[in-house]
TrEMBL record:
<dbReference type="InterPro" id="IPR031100">
    <property type="entry name" value="LOG_fam"/>
</dbReference>
<comment type="similarity">
    <text>Belongs to the LOG family.</text>
</comment>
<dbReference type="GO" id="GO:0009691">
    <property type="term" value="P:cytokinin biosynthetic process"/>
</dbReference>
<feature type="region of interest" description="Disordered">
    <location>
        <begin position="1"/>
        <end position="30"/>
    </location>
</feature>
<protein>
    <recommendedName>
        <fullName>Cytokinin riboside 5'-monophosphate phosphoribohydrolase</fullName>
        <ecNumber>3.2.2.n1</ecNumber>
    </recommendedName>
</protein>
<dbReference type="GO" id="GO:0102682">
    <property type="term" value="F:cytokinin riboside 5'-monophosphate phosphoribohydrolase activity"/>
</dbReference>
<feature type="compositionally biased region" description="Basic and acidic residues">
    <location>
        <begin position="1"/>
        <end position="10"/>
    </location>
</feature>
<dbReference type="InterPro" id="IPR005269">
    <property type="entry name" value="LOG"/>
</dbReference>
<keyword id="KW-0203">Cytokinin biosynthesis</keyword>
<dbReference type="GO" id="GO:0005829">
    <property type="term" value="C:cytosol"/>
</dbReference>
<dbReference type="Pfam" id="PF03641">
    <property type="entry name" value="Lysine_decarbox"/>
</dbReference>
<keyword id="KW-0378">Hydrolase</keyword>
<dbReference type="InterPro" id="IPR052341">
    <property type="entry name" value="LOG_family_nucleotidases"/>
</dbReference>
Amino acid sequence: MTESRSEERQAGPLTYRGKAIPESTTDQRLLDRRGPADWVHTDPWRVLRIQSEFVEGFGMLSEIGRAVCVFGSARIKPETPYYELGEAIGSRISKAGYTVITGGGPGLMEAANKGANEAGGPSVGLGIELPFEQSLNQYIDTGVTFRYFFVRKTMFLKYSQAFVVLPGGFGTLDELFEAITLVQTGKVTRFPVILVGTRFWGGLVDWIRENLLAEGLISPHDPDLIHLTDDPDEVIEIIRKAHAELASKEESAAVAELGEAMHDAERA
Ligand SMILES: C/C(=C\CNc1ncnc2c1ncn2[C@@H]1O[C@H](COP(=O)(O)O)[C@@H](O)[C@H]1O)CO
């Protein structure tokens, strides 16, 4: 990143200003093994800070109810077609009864939070400490700023039931592929991954089929894990359908379990 050093930095619950702003971020100090030795020697203690970040996140998010994460570029400006699409998506998700969760930053994260906020629904931002000025966008009503990317990623996954991915760069691709990998490996079972923007994402989806699938690097049904649309209403349809199917599977499993328990009781 080439952004200049800022006048303010948020790190978890802390705000640093002016000369108090540390030279590096918490993530950098954890991950940079070539850093000064004193940081390396504090790693065992760092575990406690990581633990506290999980505790803070779990505490804050455990009551948000059904939620959908919206990911997308931090760089897209208001009053552009993708920003307006982000607002429409945030609004529809909110009207469908889901909390909107984003990365809390500018661009398409802000657009989705704005749509949710203006629709009167809960609008959550999970921000991240970055090496340049960054505050949660103004359309968030519940927000937390994390020090560690991996803790924040756990929160996105643990507290949402669908991922909606708008156009974006490396950050968005990272979030998209992490989600798909977790769905593919059965680590998360409950949610659809929906790409919004056929012109933007179409090439990637074709590439996945023509290369990953053709070379046998993914299973034949894996491309179906990704939905692709331009239509905010279809986004909601996909989410509703996936959740209805899941509810019916869970209901069948519960009925089967009850049947087995009754059978066992009769035999006893
Ligand atoms: C680059 C700028 C701001 C960066 N601010 C961010 N704030 C919160 N979350 C972010 C930020 N940048 C990336 N993310 C995460 O990655 C996704 C967007 O990354 P992309 O590379 O822009 O696609 C997003 O979903 C966030 O979770 C400009 O001011």
